[in-house]
Amino acid sequence: MGENIYIFMVVALGVLAITDLVVGVSNDAVNFLNSAIGSKAISFRTIMIVASIGIAFGAMSSSGMMEVARKGIFNPGEFVFQEIMFIFMAVMITDILLLDFFNTLGMPTSTTVSIVFELLGASVAISLIKIADTQGGFSDLATYINTDKAAEIIFGILLSVFIAFSIGALVQFISRALISFNYKTRSKWVESIFGGLAITAIVYFILVKGLKSAALFDGVLSEFVVAQPLAFLAGNFVFWTLASYIVASFFKWNIYRIVIGFGTFALAMAFAGNDLVNFIGVPIAALQSYQDWQASGINPTEFNMQGLAAAVQTPTMLLLLSGAVMVITLWFSSKAKGVVKTSVDLARQDEGDERFQPNYLSRQIVKFSIVAFENISKVIPSSIQLQIDKQFVLPQTYVPKSKTQEQPAFDLVRASVNLMVASVLISIATSMKLPLSTTYVTFMVAMGTSLADRAWGAESAVYRVAGVLNVIGGWFFTALSAFVAAAIIAYLLFIGKFVSLVLMLVAAAAILLRNYISHNKKTKEIKAEDSLRRAESSSIQGVIEESATNIANVVKRSNRIYSNSIQGLSKHDLDFLKKNKKQSKKLASEIEGLRNDTFYFIKNLDEAHVGASNFYINIMGYLTDMSQSLEYIGKVSYNHVYNNHKKLKYNQIKELKEIDIALEKIFNSTQKAFEDRSFEQVGTVLNSREELYDMVSQKINQQVSRTRTEESSPKNTTLYFSLLLESKDLITAMMNLLEQYYAEHDSSVAPATIEKK
Hints:
Elements: H1 3-28, H2 30-39, H3 44-61, H4 67-72, H5 81-105, H6 111-133, H7 141-144, H8 148-179, H9 188-210, H10 220-227, H11 229-250, H12 255-275, H13 277-296, H14 316-332, H15 334-347, H16 360-379, H17 382-391, H18 412-431, H19 438-452, H20 461-528, H21 540-571, H22 574-596, H23 598-603, H24 611-642, H25 650-675, H26 682-686, H27 689-709, H28 714-744
């Protein structure tokens, strides 16, 4: 290969580095945004500004020593320039695709683990090729690879999970037992001592982890921190405690908010200062390798890369540009918000829609935990137990269920503990050279504090535990998939050279573009869709007025789902029916979500308007019946085509379309009546009930006759009868719904709403 190919590879790696920064920050943002966003301690804009300053400061203070990419995983002296470039290219392509995959799922993972196992996989693949060429044995792999690093990382995952979760739970339990949820009523000294501890921990974290290699603190201060850590911590604690008391007493500042803001800055800075290598380390190593090879004048298949073992400082300008890309990504990445949302939802104090479904393991863990808690409770004296329970009682404040998303997921105390414990653990691990991952620590601390804060109650525990297990499983999947994918890509690059390189880059670009378009489309659909809103009115007339939009939306979507089912069957279009089935399932899920809020709706009604609960329960039941009929129609239609059964006959399709046309008129009239709040018009729709029933009954009789004389397909007959019977059930449910509205509506009565407390 000529020199041009390597220039092309260096340029491609530069582009990949920028892309990797974008996808990497989108995932790692959860590390420092989780606590601040979840607690809503400060405005979102302020959070982003603080985090941006932290990232910029961290990038500027970074040493730029990209040792992992250069020699941490493989022995560079055993490889030549061409092989190294293949390894680096495979790593970057894999890293971008892998992190983007996790971002799309909204799952946090470790960029450190991904880059390490990608380097390991790619270098192992090239090493095995070299060993095969020299007819060596598998044992020779130790010559090329630093095999201890993989075991260290796996150990780090397990260590991070156990230590971070346990310590987070313990510290949160003690903090809550001392401070309680009524932290605003506590003495200023309690707040100040907590602030002193938290800020001291964060300051130590900044010096040990965030700025461990920065020239800013070289000299006397750095030496003192290393030589006298206890004296440094004690002095800081006294100083920050007194400072916290002064600002809390005289300036009326909230110390918890200060801790959260300061902690967010510290973690953002540490992320930029230390994890920058994960995104630009490989491209920079590739650039420096290219420069060394070009200066040597030696053939790329012969030039030894021993030079990578030497420590080389990364140009400051590259670090600044990287920091700028990270800041821009932080502000504009919608996927970053998705990853943060996953972490916040798993940690939130209140109940709500759960993203993850329970599994066998989560159920068993919850059962074991309940038994263990009951046994421990028997040992603790009841008086002490009662006192502890009082500290964990949440303040009774009414918040409409529709407004819960606007409320903090957890309070300022828990957010402060998250940041303090994460800072301490990462600091200690860094000083002891333990391989704790920043992502793993921050996530598991948040989960541990959630458990200790009794956020995982009987109603949500199995879902939350399942979510945590999914995330942890994703971490191990990261390591495995990173290793395998990088190895495969490195092998293909070695075999196919330039052709493989071009194909890989085109494929990667296509996948990223597809994911971007798909994500944007899904985001727009979520914003634009006719989603159903929860009722907050307290009277029947209020519920009628408020739910009219919901009914109009359900009717519109029901019309579309039913028509699409008939259309898909007539064309025997499997993809069309598959999409329609998803839409019917989604509608059923949304209605189920409304039904789940019945408890909160009834609980907040006063005695004078208790009749609204019966009305609400009835209409929820009718909507459920409608959605179940539509879901069944969508499912049986899809399964019929999916199983390659015979098409419905012409007469069957014709009759179904006749029903579809008649129903469409009813759906459109109903939709208009509810959109215009003209509930009197519902009576006209109800008058067509018998006509619809007769039409469906006629079609059933016609099919009975065909079955006895000419029908030869049992599957077609079964499908057709199923569609007709479910259509009849759909009509019944809708007419019952309309009858309820028609009977209860009274335009002379003003709607009443639930009084906000």
